[in-house]
Amino acid sequence: MDVVAGRVWVDERRPIRHLDPTLLIVTAVLVVIGLFAIYSATSQTLRADGFDPFSRVNKQAVTAVLGLVALLVLATFDYRFLKVYAGFIYGATLVGLLVLRIPGLAASDTGTSNYIDIPGVNLLQISPSEFAKIGLIVILAAMLSELRSPVPTVPDLIRVVGVAGLTMLLVFVNVEIGTTIALAAITVGILVVAGTQAKHLIALAVGALVLIVLAFQLNVVEEYQVERLLTVFDSGSVSEDARYNLEQSVIAVGSGGMFGRGFLQGSQTNLDYVPEQHTDFIFTVVGEEFGFFGSAFVLSLFALLLWRAIRIAYLSKDGFGTYLAAGVASMFAIQIFVNIGMVIGIMPITGIPLPFLSYGGTAMLVNFVAVGILLNVHMRRFK
Amino acid sequence: MERSSARLKVFAILVLVMFAALSTRLWFLQVLATQVYAQEAQNNGVREIPIDALRGEIWTADQYGEPKGEPLVKNRSSLEVRVDKQDLEASGMAEQVLGELSAMLDIPVKQIRSDLESKLYYDYQPKPIAEFVPEEVAFAIRERQEDFPGVQVRNASVREYPMGEIAAHMLGWVGQVQAAQLDEPQYRNYGPNDLAGQTGLEVQYEKWLRGTKGLQRYVVNSDGERIRDLGGRQPTAGNDLVLTIDSQWQRAAEQYLEDSILRTRQVFDEDSGTYYKADAGVVVVMDVETGGLKAMASWPGYDPRWFVRGLKRGETCYLGLTEKCAQADTAAPLLNRAYQEVYLPGSTFKPFTALAAVKEGFANFGSYYPCPSEYVHPNDESGASFSNWSPVDLAPRTLAENLIISCDTSFYKWGSDFWFRYQNDQLGENNEPLQKDLRAWGFAQATGVDLPNEASGFLPDAEWGNDPEQRDLFGRGGWNPGGYILTMIGSGYTSVTPLQLAAAYGALANGHRCRPHVVDRVMSSEGETVVKKVNGQCNRTVPYTNAELDYIRNALAQVPVRGTARLPFLGFPLSEVPVAGKTGTAYRGTQFQDTSWFAAMVPANDPKYVVVAMVEQAGFGSDVAAPLVRRMIEKMYDIEPGGQIVSQTGQD
Fold it and tell me: Which of B465, B483, B513 marks a domain boundary?
C-alpha cells in the first residue's frame, strides 16, 4: 500500500499532472480566432496583389507552433532556474535593445527600427523590446522575492525603479510608446502585489507624470505620436490621418451590431478601410464580423486568461512565482485594455498588439513564453 | 502566499473594472449605436455614379404611313474637354496647363481663358472648352491626368441633326445647364455638368426629353479601386417627340421662303428708291382642325450643328451673341419670327375688324359702303386725313367687295364708329368693343404654342393711349379716333405674330380657335406607347354665327379669283383647290419698306389648312407673300408650280 501510496503520491507530485488545461485551451482558442481574423483582414488584399491569400495566416500559424515549442521549453524546467539566471536574462534583453541602436544590425539602416533581422531566417524578425517585457518580469520578480523586509523599502524601490526605468528608457528611445506603457504596467503590477505602500506608489506615479511632461516638453516624443495620443481626447484637433484611423476602426466595430456581419462579410475589413488591421487593429475584425457576441466572447476568453494568471499568482508556492504570474497578468491586462480600448475609441492610439490575436512574430512568441511561465508556476505550486 | 492574496484581490478588481469599461463601450457601439455605424460603413464602401440618360429624339409627323416621320434630332457621342477653373487655379499650374491645352486642342489660349470666364456657368461648374476632341488628344489628357489638374474629358452625348438646318428655330439647342437655370426650382436635381435644353422644343419639352439618369453602384476599397459591381439602375432614355410638322412641307416652306426673299431683293422699290431689303420672313402652315402646325419657317436661320461643334467667331457675330463684331449684325437669326416677333398685320386684319363692325352694328352684309381715296374723321378739323391704297375714288360696295379689293377707307369709317361708341360712353363697361372682339380671335395674347418665349402682340386701347408714356403718340389730347381707324386696317400700333394671325384664320376657317402646337405626341423611347398627346384645345369658339363666318370666307375666296391676289394666283387651279385669302401690306413709316402679308385658308369651301406668309421690307402682299403662299399650296396639293415666286402687281 505504501509503495502504491508512495507511487500515487509521487505521481501526484509530478508537475505534468498539474498542467492548467483551462489556460492552454483559452490560449489555443484565442490563437485560432486570431488566425481567422488575420485571414479576413489580409486575404482580400493579398489575393488582389497576386499573393497566396493564406500567406499571412500560414506565417502566423508557424509562429504559433514555434510559440508552443517555447511554451513547452519554458514549462519543462523548474521556474526557479529563472530566478538563478534572472540577471543574465535581464542583461541579454538590454543587449538586445542596444543592438537596435547599432546601424547595420537593425532591420532599418536608419537605426530606428524595432526589429533585428536574423540572417538567413526570413520567417522571424526579432523585436527585442517584446522580449524586454519577459526580461523585466523575471528580474523584478527575482528582486522582490528576495526582500528582507515584508514590504519593499525605499532603497528597494529605487533599485526596482532603476532596473525598470533603464529598460523603459531603451524601449522608449526606440519610439515604442505602447511597449513602454506595458513595461510600466508590469512594474506597477508587480510592485502592488509585492505590497508596496500606497504613498510610495503615489510618489512613483507623480514622478512618472513629471517625466512624461518633461518628455513632451523636450520634444522627445515624435509629433505623430502626440497626435495619436490626443485623438482620444479631442478628435477635432488632430490630423486627418490620425482621426481616420480611429473613425474607421470605430465604424468597423460599431457596424458589426449584435451578431456581426459574418465571417469575411465585413465591408470595412474586406475593403481595407481600417489601417494596420491585421496587427494593432485586429479586434475590428472580431467586432465587425462577429458582432457584440463575438467581441464579448473574446473578452471572456481574455478574462478567463487573466483569472487563471491571478489564480496562479495566488497558488504559487513562493514569492518569485507569485510575482512572475502577477507580472504576466499585468502585461496581458494592460495590452488587452489599451489595445481594445484604442480600437473602440476610449484609449489613445499607441502601437500595442492584442495578445494572441494580432499578427506579429515576436509578440506571439513572447505571449507563449509568458503562458509557459504561468504553467510552470502552476505545475510546481506544491512545496 | 497569504500576504499577497489581498493585493491580488485589488489587482483582480482593477482587471474587472477594465473589462466592465470595455464591455460597456462595446455595448454602446455595437448594440445601441450600431445603425449609425452600419450606415457609415455602407457610405464608406459604396460609390454611386450617375449614368446619363440618352436624350429623347425628335421626329416629324407620320404623314406617309411611317410610324414616325423623319428624324429631326438624334444623338451621337462626343469627347468633350471641360475645365474646373477652381481646381486648375488651385494647382498653381494654370499657365502651363492652358498652354498645353491650347496646343493640343488648337484653340488660342485667349479663347480658353474667355471660356473659363464665362458667366453662363457657376464657378463650381466645370466649363466646356472643346467638343469633338480627337480620340488621341482625349487619351493623352487622360493618360497624364496629373499634369492636367482640373481638366476633365467626358464622353458626352450630343445632338445630331439629320435634316441639317431644317426647323432649327423650332428644335432649339441643348447645352450645359446654365447658372440662370440652376437657380430655378425645376432644375433642382440637375448636376453642374448636366445638359439641358436651351431654346425651342429642347427647353419646352425638357422634362420629357431628358429621361432619367441611371445609377451604377459599386463597392470601392479604401484606395477608391472598384472591387465589385452592386448593379444599380439603368438610365431611362428620354421620351421622343413626334411633331405635327410635315417634313416635306417644312423643307418646302423654308426653301420657298428663302427663294422668295432672295428674289425680292432684286426688285427695285420706287417709294424708297432702293432695292427691297427683304431681310426676314415667315411661313406658317396650320391644320385648322387640330391646331397642329404642319410647317413653320423663319428666315434668316442658322445651323443647329454650329452649337454642337462649338461656334466659330464669324458665327457668334452672325448669331448676334457677342457685341465685339466688326459690324453689328441685326439679322437676329436666332429669333423665330413666326411667334417671337410682332408685326403690323395690315389688311390681313380686315376680316376680323369687319366682323367686329358687323357685331357692333356698324356694318351689315346688305349695305353698300363708299370707298373714297381719302377719309377724314367726321368733324375733325386737325387736317388729318387717312388715304386708301388707290389714289382714285372707288364706287361704294358691299362689305364683301370692300374686303375683296381691300378698301381701306370703308374700314376707316367703322373705326370712327368705334371712336364714337367710346366717346359717348367713356365710363361704360363695354365702351371698347373692338379690342374685346379682336381678343376673341386670340390677338394680344399668347397663343399658347408649345414653344418658349412667345410674343403676345398688342391692341392699342384708350387706357394705353392715355397713359403718359404713350400720350404724345396721339397728339396733345391722348387717345383719339386715329387709334380705332388705324386698328381697323391692322395698322397704327396694332401688332400680331404671324402665328397669332394663322391661329385667328384657323378660327375663321371653322369657328373653332385652336391652340397651335408643333408636338403631336410624346412617345416612350423604346415602344410605341403614347406618353402624352398634345391637345389643340379646339373647343373654344368665336362669337360669330356660321353664316357670318361663311360670308367672310366666301368674300376671301374671291380674293384670288378677282381681288387683290388675282394676279399671283393666275393659272392656279382654283376650281379644284379653292383658296380663300387676304393680302396685307403694312406701312411701317418712311424708315422701313412695307411688310408683305398673305393669309389663306385652303380649300376655301371646307378649310383644312391655314397658310400664312410674311416677308419684311418686301412691298405689296400680292407681290411677295401671295405668290409664296401659292407655291406652298401647290406643294401641299401636288400641283405643278406655276407663276413667279415674286410677282409685280402693285396691289395691296
Answer: B513
